[in-house]
Amino acid sequence: MKTVCGILCFLLLSQGVGGLLHEWTDGWFELWSVVARMSYFDGYEIYVSVVLIVAGLAMGAASESAKKRGL
What we know:
The longest helix has 25 residues, at 45-69. The relative contact order is 0.23. This protein is mostly helical and 71 residues long. It contains two helices and no strands.
């Protein structure tokens, strides 16, 4: 459980940070960001990236909680 949460934490954080870097650098980090490739999120890329970062932090907290409980 803690390994799955840790992997999800990493993926969510990397996609969120990659999306923000893609927006702030005018497309230099296109390979990192799945959000930038999806036309569904046009105009909302920054908001979606922030949500991904928050979700990644929540998964990291869940991973730490699982480590403490021994799950």
